[in-house]
Amino acid sequence: MSNRTYEDVVKYVEEQNHKKCKVLSAKPEQTFEDLGVEVRVWNVKTDNEGSWWVVEGDTVPMNLYPQDAYYFGTDEAYSFHMGIMQRMKASTYKPEDYVSAMTMDSDIAPQLFRKLKKIATLIDTAVEVEDFQAIGVQCREVLIELGNLIYFPEMAGENEQPQASNFKKKAELFVQYYLAGSDNSDYRSIIKKLTESTWDYSNKITHSQNATFYEASSCVSLCTSLVGVYENVRQKATDLLAQYKCKNCTSKKLEINDHEATEKGIVTKLFLECEECGEVTEIIFENTEE
Ligand SMILES: [Zn+2]
User: pLDDT exceeding 70 applies to what percent of the chain?
Assistant: First the structure.
C-alpha cells in the first residue's frame, strides 16, 4: 500500500532541486519487499535537471539518486538506499544507555542522570578544543552537584562545614560517615583516589589546550562511573542486610523473619533466616534511646 502519491514525489524532486526544474513524468518503476518492508523506486524525469530514482516506502524516508551518475538501475538505487538506512539505524547512539551501562544500572538521582546524559550527548559531537573544554566544565558541574546531593551538615560533626562547591571535602566526609571502620578501609581508600583523580582530571580538561576526543571521553567515563560509585555507597548504607552472613553456612541469602523493638518502635533485634540452611541469625542493635 503506497502512502506517498505522485504529487508527493513530484514536489519532493522539485524541492530537492531548489525548484530549478519541472518534473515531466514520475512513475513507480519497481517495488521491493525482500526486507520485510514495501519499498518503491520511482522513475522521475525533469526538464533540465536530468532523471532521478526516488526511493521511498512505508517506514523508509524518501531520498533521490541521479540516474545518470552512479546509480544505474532501480536495483542499485534500492540497495544503496536500504544500506544507508540500516547503517543509520545501527549507529543510533543513546546517551542514556551509555550512562546506565557505565553505572551498572544503579539507581542514579534524576538530576545527576540528566546531567550525565547531557555530557554523554556532548561527547558524541565534540570536535574542537573548546568542545572538549566544555565537557570538562560539565563534568565539574556534575561532581559539584554530586557533592551537594550526598552531603548533609551532620557529616562534618564538630568540624567546620565545607564550602558549597568543595566537592572533594564533601565527598571525603560522606565516605567517612558511611564507610567507617577497618572493614571498609580498602573501599575508602580506592574511592578517595578515584574521587581526587576524577576531580583533578575534570579541571585539567577544562583548561587543556590540547585535549582530544580521547582525553575528554576518559574524563566522561571517570565522572560517570564515580557517580555510580557514590550511589553504590548510599545504597549500601540503606541496605540493612548487605553486611550480614548466615552464622551457620555463611550464605548471604537472608530474609528478615522477625524483629524486636522498643515501645517507641526502635528496632533492637533482627532475626534473619537463611534461605540456604534455615538457620536463624540474630542481629542485636545498640539501643541508643537512653
Ligand atoms: Zn545458612
Answer: 94
pLDDT digits (tens, 9 = 90+) for 49-64: 899 999 998 778 888 8
Q: For residue 254, report the distance from its CA to the centre of ligand 1, in Å.
A: 8
Question: What's the gap in Å between 234 CA and the centre of ligand 1?
Answer: 27
Amino acid letter, 10: V
Query: What's the average model confidence in pLDDT over 168-187?
Result: 93
Phi/psi of residue 207, nearest 5 degrees: -110, -5
Of 107, 159, 92, 134, the closest CA to residue 220 belongs to 134
Rg over CA atoms, the chain: 31
The Å distance, Cα 271 to ligand 1 centre, comes to 13
Q: How far is CA 229 from the centre of its chain?
A: 15
Q: pLDDT-based confidence at 240, cuts 50/70/90?
A: confident
Cβ 50 vs Cβ 66: under 8 Å: yes
Mean pLDDT of the chain, nearest integer: 89
Q: What's the CA-to-centroid distance between 276 and ligand 1, angstroms?
A: 5
